[in-house]
Design goal:
Bound molecules: adenosine-5'-diphosphate, magnesium ion
Shape: elongated
Helix content: 25-40%
Distance between the termini: 76 Å
Structural class: alpha+beta
Strand content: 15-25%
Largest sheet: 10 strands, mixed
């Protein structure tokens, strides 16, 4: 029997705001000193009152618009009650019945909802026979996005998470770095016999802190659950974690249900009628990743791998757009794209800082020089290296380094005549119809010019001389 996996994702992202979700303590994910960004509100002192962070609501509305979800007319915050030291109030303020966003799609995956809540403190249990707790993160605005159970493989799940990360960055809503915990993915996974009309029992895997781990945990769970069912045993609904050392998931706790949290509307916070709040009516969207992809494909005709490089790296994309605008001609733009994604990115991978000295204008001039045959592609690479290291004018560099290809008809003729005189046998073969011999002669000519001849013009010179 074949088992079909089903996956639904729950993704949290820390929002980029100046202050926390319900107080004016700083929201600074880079703060290294523990317990400095705290105040009586986020420390849950008695008698304090929370105030909703407008910017955080705006971020979630913007995300909702970008995924074409429905923005609620009415929304409210609820208390999710549980006790743990990382949640000083004894409850987390979240949204239950009335999320800000319902529905929507991203990367072909249906979204159930997007809501707003507050982050917990961070705790450390690995120091000894005590625990440490840092409340800097307690109360930081946290967006939660939940997808429908419509994903069937790890690759699609990772693709969705990456697309969400990109979108959050484009919207300025979150830095969404997984390694910093700014974006956190939980995968709900079940398997069911092919053709069955109900879902299997799902397991929720938490703490997946990289895309690689998301993929591995899903693959591991699908294999584990399939084996359990094949042995005729039953699965239990539970929360599992990822063990990086063992490369496997492990049971953390049995799943709690929503009634365990005794959700109820937070009486300290106002209800929000979003459609009546003036500031939320004209929230604009920047160009979205999908729109940019289409524009690049349409305007530049470059290959999709190149487009992805420009979409995911906004500085590189901006640089390339400057180059493309200067070049105009599509063939030149495609050539510029090749040099950017192979040579420039190659240099950056080796540690070079590619934006400090290299101006889009000198890069486009270089592309024009190589396209017109003034310099060879080898020469272009050498000049590019100099442009990246110290900048300058590509023409001056080419002249200084002797990289202009010889296009002087007289000089090329002299070279070709010399090679013809030295290679009587090959010349005879060529005249007898062996076209491959021409390549040999051109190669000899290039060597004689120590690579400086324009190969295309040299080839034409040979053809002319030999057909005479
Ligand atoms: P819970 O009440 O346990 O949080 P929800 O129904 O709210 O469960 O769904 C939470 C997440 O689990 C969603 O992302 C949803 O797509 C996913 N999910 C629900 N049922 C299944 C299933 N049988 N298999 C895989 N994922 C599922
Ligand atoms: Mg859940």
């Amino acid at each position: 029997m074949k088992y079909i996996p089903t996956i639904g994702l729950e993704i949290h992202a820390e929002l980029k705001t100046r202050t926390k979700m319900f107080c004016d303590s700083a929201n600074n994910p880079d703060e290294e000193r523990p317990n400095v960004n705290i105040c009586p509100v986020c420390m849950a002192h008695p008698g304090t009152l929370p105030v909703i962070n407008k910017k955080a609501v705006e971020h979630v509305i913007r995300v909702g618009k970008a995924v074409l979800g429905t923005i609620a007319d009415y929304t409210e915050f609820d208390r999710k009650n549980y006790f743990y030291p990382d949640i000083p109030k004894g409850y987390q303020i979240s949204q239950y019945k009335y999320p800000i966003v319902s529905g929507g799609t991203l990367s072909g995956v249906q979204i159930t909802r997007v809501h707003l809540e507050e982050d917990t403190a961070t705790s450390q249990h690995d120091k000894g026979d005590y625990s440490l707790i840092d409340y800097n993160r307690a109360g930081v605005p946290l967006m939660e996005l939940v997808t429908e159970p419509v994903i069937h493989d790890a690759e699609t799940a990772v693709k969705f998470a990456k697309e969400l990360q990109l979108l959050l960055r484009y919207l300025g809503a979150s830095e969404a770095n997984m390694e910093k915990g700014e974006m956190r993915v939980e995968a709900n996974i079940s398997v069911a016999p092919e053709g069955s009309d109900s879902f299997g029992i799902k397991v929720e895997v938490k703490n997946l802190n990289s895309f690689r781990v998301v993929a591995k945990a899903i693959e591991y769970e699908v294999a584990r659950q399939t084996k359990v069912l094949e042995r005729g045993e039953k699965l239990v609904q539970e929360t599992r974690g990822w063990d990086e050392a063992k490369q496997s998931t492990f049971s953390q706790r049995m799943k709690e249900s929503s009634h365990d949290y005794r959700y109820f509307p937070d009486p300290d916070l106002p209800k929000l009628r979003l459609s009546e709040i003036a500031e939320f009516q004209n929230i604009s969207l920047p160009e979205l990743p999908t729109e940019k992809r289409e524009r690049y494909a349409h305007d530049y005709g470059i290959k999709s791998e190149d487009i992805e490089s420009f979409i995911t790296d906004e500085a590189l994309g901006a640089f390339f757009e400057g180059v493309a605008t200067a070049l105009k001609d599509r063939a030149l733009v495609v050539l510029a794209s090749n040099y950017t994604t192979s040579d420039l990115l190659g240099m950056r991978a080796n540690g070079a800082d590619i934006f400090t000295h290299l101006a889009p204008a000198s890069f486009s001039a270089l592309i024009q020089m190589v396209a017109s045959g003034e310099i060879s592609s080898r020469g272009a690479k050498d000049i590019l290296k100099i442009l990246v290291e110290k900048g300058g004018d590509p023409r001056e560099i080419a002249a200084h380094e002797g990289l202009f290809q010889k296009s002087d008809a007289g000089e090329l003729k002299a070279i070709a005549e010399k090679i013809i005189a030295e290679n009587e046998k090959v010349v005879a073969e060529y005249k007898a119809g062996k076209t491959a011999s021409l390549q040999f002669l051109v190669g000899q000519g290039m060597r004689a010019s120590r690579g400086s001849a324009n190969p295309e013009m040299l080839r034409k010179t040979f053809i002319e001389l030999l057909s005479a």
